[in-house]
Specification:
single chain, 901 residues, alpha+beta, seven-stranded mixed beta sheet, four-stranded antiparallel beta sheet, 17% strand, globular, disordered N terminus, disordered C terminus, PDZ_CPAF-rel, signal, S41A_metabolite_peptidase, ClpP/crotonase-like_dom_sf, serine-type peptidase activity
């Protein structure tokens, strides 16, 4: 049976987006709409729709003109950016057991420049696809670029899919997700599996589709899982790649043939992610000016273009209800038990909580669910207390074994991962070694900024700001000596490995309170046990704990698994993967130690240039503000590799198999209680439940190298030159950089540039009841106060004004009683989140300064927008703290929200 958009597969994400946009806006049937105006049709949709026909979106994208001079300047800028990416040499020449193709990133940029010189790109879309395809093949969640016209759109199938085995033993098949859900675990009827997609074998089609559209995974099994619907992803408000985060145009339609002979064809979707008011945007040229160059149209009028004039601000200034709705106590998801036994306060999609615990009393097993480490503000401290409470109550209940569920954990706060590990194993000091790529620019910056830091006293205001900065060596610990580095030069090395140079391995100094407080950005509300107590007794032995992953584990999640598995000896079960037998890697996302915002990198470079002014090193790199012509909404590189004690190969390139692999089944795909029991039984009761050939490959510090050698893939190198046309007679020609400068100067005449800030329009189709319209002081033209959609908030624990669109504070408008389930009543202040106010606006309305919080290391600019406009907990900004590892989104050419840290 096939049911388009059948519940629950209008997921949490889609149900929010479809409010006010109940149907997909299709291209005119007679194609009378000129393609050059397709962009205006989308952006100016009167209903504020988000879903459009994929072909209409493609017509818009391909109508955007290409300027080779601008592209040339950007490639030069981005080449300097990628020189800081830590894995360049290993990507070019990876170990034989690396499961993805090799790729030469810097060589790829050179090939793109040759293609630009050859006139290969007919439009901006072709250029951006080639660039994003190159970055996608680095298979690193920490490497992404959210810029240009591709930052405005993604594509998707009109239905979700899942992959499962009918009995846990047979090879999995692919099904329409809603069919499986409505079959009630195959008890009401047995759905028919998908046989063909667009005339190709379903498995072969999806493997090819994953290879060309899934970014960030070091393992093809994780690529496969990222195509599938998952409730562990849905509760966090994210699309999967197949049905919402496809980066490149997949074609006009998708045709499905089921095994029972049923065939149907549906139109693919294009999803528009608004970046704020565009003004009177109509043509592809307008789209280029706004999304590529960051210019507002000359005719932009904030009084007309900012807000929908048909919407009247009738939002109440006070909360009408006398009782505040209690914070959520569960995920309200069919896959999770209805009520957790332990729950972090404010648990839920729009709350600050993410952790929950469940007692499976019939089996003496408890489950700690950690779908993310990406928490902030009060939720950071409640996360650690929730784990403490989970351990206490599990022991009090006499439950002897623990399953830690990390499905869909994209990472987040590194120190939260360390804290949770230390709660389970207080007697082990985790290694956590990492290193930078040691090239000339790194050396110049580090020497200058470390010297500046060493001149400060702890009482100086900049001391705490600079303490955790990447370019300060003397606050880090030398992994070899276990003492602080004495100087930058001692830290820098370099150490040569695989034809490249790296710094000496560093570790965090958890005993340095200023460093930890600055790193976590939450002074006084968080703790990391810095010194292991050999007398401390872990609450459980490692053999009584297992970790469950679906491979989609990145960044801070990867570090947590490394500590739990490699250092403590906890076993891992991985679920899903391609429809094959054999092992599967436990961590398929990035294992890098530091996602680093390109915006912060630019500010760091410019800061170092200022410190070096008047010296021969001052121009070690061009001024980053002057070098960047295009508007970058967000971007990141992997600044530091994670490496093990005494090793040189980054964990990103190691083969890390789980102890056991299991398939999803009809009974477990949408019932996580059954899934947890299945994983527990596979380890502790019936090893025969493990997929054939999947055991014996895992390694840890406890295995003494006795594992089966990892599989060696036959994956040819990825070469972007194979995907673009290069004229050998023109490939060595150059474009005068001055041409781009003159072009930008001409375009600036009569145009205003966009600021980095993003605010939500007061249009009912674009936000739900968790927002309200308020007059906010803004920088848009001459009018400073604009109606702006801001989130509601209260002064209870877990409520945060960090929405992902702006920093700010909670303006309390009313005090109301809050009634707890046990009858206790407290007074709670409720109101709205007011962003930090601009202190000065230029003639175009761009923000020049802020009233507070601005620095060269933490510029108060917009965080990467959530790819889905849902209220509450947005993606954490890479600009909140100079050192805080920003989450990297579900990788979709760098455009999706990844929660990697």
């Amino acid at each position: 049976m096939y049911h388009r958009w059948s519940r629950p597969f209008i997921s949490t994400v889609l149900s929010t987006l479809l409010v006010g946009a109940q149907s997909v806006t299709a291209a005119p049937s007679n194609s009378t709409q000129p393609p050059r105006e397709a962009c205006g049709t989308i952006v100016n949709d009167p209903d504020g729709a988000f879903f459009f026909d994929a072909t209409l979106v493609y017509e818009c994208l391909t109508s955007v003109p290409f300027n080779p001079a601008v592209a040339t300047r950007f490639l030069r800028y981005y080449n300097d950016t990628l020189s800081f990416h830590s894995t360049l040499s290993y990507l070019k020449d990876p170990p034989s057991t690396y499961q993805q193709p090799s790729v030469d990133l810097l060589g790829g940029l050179q090939s793109l420049q040759y293609a630009v010189n050859s006139g290969s790109f007919a439009n901006q879309y072709e250029f951006e696809v080639a660039l994003q395809l190159l970055l996608l093949n680095a298979h690193d969640d920490h490497l992404y670029l959210n810029a240009g016209i591709l930052s405005a759109f993604s594509f998707g199938s009109p239905f979700d899919i899942v992959s499962l085995s009918v009995d846990g033993v047979e090879t999995p098949k692919v099904y329409i997700a809603s069919d499986v859900f409505e079959s009630n675990a195959f008890t009401s009827y047995e759905p028919s599996a998908i046989k063909l997609i667009n005339g190709q074998d379903a498995t072969a089609y999806l493997e090819t589709f994953a290879a060309g559209n899934v970014a960030g995974s070091v393992d093809p099994d994780t690529d496969w899982n990222r195509l599938m619907f998952s409730f562990a992803q849905d509760i966090q408000g994210f699309f999967n790649v197949f049905s919402g985060l496809t980066p490149f145009y997949p074609g006009e339609t998708i045709t499905i043939e089921l095994e029972n002979g049923t065939t149907f064809t549906e139109r693919n979707l294009g999803i528009y992610f608004s970046q704020g008011p565009t003004g009177p945007l109509e043509t592809g040229g307008d789209f280029y000016n706004f999304f590529v160059l960051g210019f507002l149209p000359a005719s932009f009028d904030p009084n007309v273009d900012f807000a929908d004039p048909t919407v009247v601000d009738d939002s109440p200034t006070t909360v009408p209800s006398e009782v505040v709705t209690p914070p959520p106590l569960s995920w309200n998801s069919p896959a999770y038990p209805e009520i957790p036994d332990v729950a972090q306060p404010d648990l839920g999609l729009i709350g600050g909580g993410v952790l929950s615990g469940y007692f499976l009393n019939s089996s003496s097993v408890s489950v700690l669910s950690i779908p993310s480490f990406d928490v902030f503000d009060d939720a950071l401290s409640t996360a650690q207390t929730t784990v403490t409470e989970f351990i206490r109550r599990t022991q009090a209940a006499g439950l002897q074994r623990v399953v830690i569920d990390l499905q869909q954990n994209k990472g987040g706060q590194v120190l939260l991962a360390v804290n949770i590990f230390k709660q389970f194993f207080p007697n082990i000091e985790p290694f956590g070694g990492s290193r930078l790529r040691a090239h000339h620019a790194t050396d110049v910056m580090g020497q200058a900024i470390t010297d500046r830091f060493n001149q400060l006293s702890p009482s100086d205001s900049d001391f705490a700001i600079l303490s955790p900065v990447e370019w300060v060596a003397t606050t880090r610990i030398d992994a070899e000596t276990n003492s602080s580095f004495a100087s930058w030069s001692q830290f820098f090395g370099p150490v040569i490995s695989t034809g490249d140079a790296f710094t000496r391995t560093q570790r965090f100094n958890f005993s340095n309170e200023i460093f930890v407080d600055s790193l976590i950005g939450n002074e006084g509300n968080f703790s990391v046990i810095s010194t292991p107590s050999q007398k401390a007794t872990p609450p459980w032995a490692p053999e009584d704990i297992i970790i469950l992953t679906d491979g989609d584990c990145s960044s801070a999640c990867a570090l947590f698994v490394e500590m739990m598995h490699h250092e403590a000896g906890v076993r891992i079960v991985t679920v899903g993967g391609k429809p094959t037998t054999g092992p599967m890697q436990a961590v398929g996302g990035t294992r890098g130690a530091r996602s680093f915002s390109t915006d912060i990198l630019d500010n760091n470079i410019n800061f170092a240039r200022e410190l070096l002014e008047g010296t021969s090193d001052a121009d070690f790199l061009p001024n980053r503000t002057e070098a960047l012509d295009i508007f970058v909404l967000d971007g990141s590189i992997n600044l530091r590799d994670q490496v093990r004690r005494g090793e040189t190969v980054p964990l990103q390139f190691a083969y890390e198999a789980a102890n056991c692999r299991i398939y999803f089944t009809p009974q477990t795909i949408f019932n996580y209680t059954a899934l947890w029991m299945h994983a527990a039984d596979a380890i502790w009761t019936n090893p025969g439940l493990c997929v054939a050939g999947s055991t014996g490959y895992a390694t840890s510090s406890k295995t003494n190298g006795s594992s089966i050698p990892p599989p060696v893939p036959s994956t040819p190198a990825f070469n972007i030159a194979d995907h673009v046309t290069i004229d050998p007679d023109k490939s060595n020609s150059t474009v005068d950089v001055g041409d781009a400068g003159e072009l930008a100067g001409d375009l600036l005449s009569g145009f205003c540039t966009r600021t980095g800030f993003r605010f939500r329009e007061c249009r009912e189709a674009q936000f739900d009841s968790s927002f309200m319209c308020k007059p906010i002081l803004r920088c848009f033209g001459d009018t400073a106060v604009q109606l702006t959609a801001v989130t509601t908030c209260d002064n209870s624990r877990g409520s945060s004004c960090f929405t992902g669109f702006s920093d700010g504070h909670c303006v309390i408008e009313q005090i109301v009683p809050y009634i707890f389930p046990d009858g206790e009543v407290i007074d709670v202040g409720v109101g709205f989140c007011e962003p930090n106010q601009p202190s000065q606006c230029n003639s175009c309305g761009s923000i020049i300064g802020l009233t507070s919080g601005s620095s060269k290391f933490a510029p108060r600019q917009a965080s990467r927008q959530s790819r889905v406009p849902v209220a509450g907990r947005g993606p954490t900004s890479p600009f909140t703290s100079p050192i805080r590892a920003p989450p990297a989104p579900v990788p979709n050419t760098g455009r999706a929200p990844s929660r990697a840290g």
